[in-house]
Amino acid sequence: MFLRYSLFKKKKIVIYSLILSIFSVFINYYYANLGVFPPDSFCHFDNGFRILLGENPFKDYWTVSGPAIDYFQAIFFYLFGVSWTSYVIHASIFNLILTLATFLLLREFNLSINFSFFYSLLFSILAYTSSGTPFPDHHSAFFSLLGVYSLILAIKSEKKIYWFLFPILFGFAFLSKQVPSSYIIICAVLILTFYSISRKNFLWIKYSAASTISFIFIILIFGKIQGINLSSFLEQYIYYPQTIGQSRIENFNLTFDGVIAHFKFIYIVFIPFIYLNIKNILYNKNYFNDKNFLYFLSFLFLTFSLIFHQLLTKNQTFIFFLIPILSAFSHISLQDKKLNFSKNLSILLIAICFFSTIKYHLRFNEERKFHELNNVNFNLSVSGEKIDTKLGGLKWISPQYESDPIKEINLINDIKNHITEDKRKKMVMTHYLFFSAILDENFFHPSRWLLSDGTTHPLKGNKYFSQYKNLLIDIIVKNELKVIYVVDSVAKFNIYDYLGKECYEEKKINEILNIYELKNCNEINN
User: Which candidate, 101, 87, 79, 169, places its Cα nearest to that of 131?
Assistant: First the structure.
């Protein structure tokens, strides 16, 4: 009888895992095809392709975030071909990995199979789907989440594999974006320090240290092979972003709506978990030595690290995936305590989690709020194939031309025709970061994005301005470029800040396209 029940349980886990896998891929794939916000939707598209051509971040284009994602995308392009479909598969597979990891973690904490499935399914709806396409904040947060999962499992089981794995996951999180990964890594170090002191267990150090040293060594060797200078990496990825962060901290403003009201459902589902742990701290003098306290600290630090990141960056919110996770661990805590009100409170938790998931699903998936598409009529969208077959599957409509996507596509095709007809070696600076990939030609974009607020590359007055200017000139000279195309579709790029007017002859082609034909000038010749 027991054997039959055990086999049934294993089959159920396999079936649930299969359903979660299919659903998590499908839901991300479906919503990724629904409209675009070009600067974000395509931020790793051309760069993934350029890596296949032999170019590299830091060396061939200014990089403030996402170098690891560029390489991952290059792998997907290599395996599945250069297309929008391959691009979306990247994020969809990541959504699958996250969902299954969440399901398996909940099972490790003895949450019933049905509830583990329920919370994991809701997680998959709110995880990568808010973006749908590879994005630095998402990759950084989700690699960090996997790192926290591994850390928790390492503490719980004390298996070597988890001690070895979590530094690698945190490493990829940092190489996806410096924040929020840095906040979470610092918190993990604090937790491990407390773990070592409270439990007098230092055995984990040799496995995690070996993993960390190996990871750093491999990254350094890989960078050396790719021709990436350590100084360029430090300037672009470590030092320059600090100037951005400093200005954001100086302008940091806390409000009740921003800190409390906006994240209310995250706090609400976290309350039982917090309450039960505070109660244990007050009434159990040995609770600090309990592993459950470390699990609580891990989720507490993770939650407030992600909230702090959202408050500081002021980007669209994407961390509502915490709601199913925190609901699940509140549920587990109530289940373990077996209190009189546990059942009723668990039912309330499930209801709140379900309601909030539907609410944010409608806002961020159906309305595509993360990509500024919440006021768009998707019935007006046009097939991406009208630009190129490589964009097949994409329903094109963007916030900039929400009422007339055909006009935007015509402008893009006009730009595409000018680029194709111009046989000179050229640079194309644009938010439509797919021209290199669809035209199978390197257009030497000097940075990932073309923003005018100083978040993507140094502006005049920044102490790293000269480094970016030198990189721009080096790209022009090394590749013998004759013309620069600048597409000012979202933000204006003042090219004259980097090279004087004597270096160009400017021509306006259409309302968003300018051409700058390069001439001999001292700045380039020197």
Answer: 87
pTM: 0.95
In angstroms, rounded to a whole number, what is the distance separating the alpha carbons of residues 296 and 275? 11
Q: CA-to-CA distance for 396 and 403, rounded, in angstroms? A: 12
pLDDT tens for 207-225 read 999 999 999 999 999 999 9
Q: Tell me the pLDDT tens digit for each residue of 66-79.
A: 999 999 999 999 99
Residue 435 resides in a domain: yes
Contacts 24+ apart (CB under 8 A), 185-190: 185/144, 185/147, 187/298, 187/301, 187/302, 187/305, 188/147, 188/148, 188/151, 188/298, 188/301, 190/301
Q: How far is CA 58 from the centre of its chain?
A: 19
Collect all residues with Cβ–Cβ distance below 8 Å to 183 and sequence separation of at least 6.
305, 308, 309
62-110 pLDDT tens trace: 999 999 999 999 999 999 999 999 999 999 999 999 999 999 999 999 9
SS (H, E, C) 348-372: HHHHHHHHHHHHHHHHHHHCCHHHC
Which residues constitute the domain of residue 432?
397-525
On average, the pLDDT of the chain sits at 92
Number of independent structural domains in the chain:
1
How far apart, in Å, do the first and last CA atoms of the chain sit?
84
Beta-bridged to residue 506, according to DSSP, are: 516
Please check whether residue 62 lies inside any domain of the structure: no
The H-or-E segment that residue 441 falls in is none
Report the DSSP pairing between strands 513-518 and 483-487: antiparallel
* Pair type for strands 504-510 and 483-487: unpaired
The answer to whether the CB of 436 falls within 8 A of the CB of 443 is: yes
**Does residue 456 form part of some domain?**
yes
Nearest to 273 by CA among 185, 336, 317, 352: 336
Dihedral in degrees, nearest 10, Cα atoms 398, 401, 403, 404: -110
How far apart CA 421 and CA 271 sit, in angstroms, is: 62
258 CB contacts (<8 Å, ≥6 apart)? 311
Please give the radius of gyration of the chain, using alpha carbons only, rounded to the nearest integer: 25
Peptide bond into 136 cis (omega under 30): no
Sheet with 483-487, edge to edge strand ranges: 426-429, 483-487, 513-518, 504-510
